[in-house]
Amino acid sequence: MTAFARIRIVALLLMLLGLATASAAFAEKLGPDGAPNPTASVTNQKTLLEQAPRIQGRIDIPDVKASVLIQPMGRTWDYFHEVLLHWGGALVIVGTIAMLMLAYLIMGRLRIEAGRSGQTIVRFKAFERFCHWLTAVSFVLLGLTGLNITFGKVLLRPLVGPELFTDISEIAKYVHNFTSFAFVAGLAFITVLFFKDNLFQKVDIDWVKQGGGFIKSKHAPAGRFNLGGKLVYWLSVAAGLAVSASGFVLLFPFYGTNIADMQIAQIAHAVIAILFIALILGHIYIGTLGMEGAFEAMGTGEVDVNWAREHHDRWLAEKLEAERRQASAAPAE
Question: I want to staple 49 with a disulfide (CB 3.0 to 4.6 A). Which of 72, 117, 276, 310 is the partner?
Answer without folding.
Answer: 72
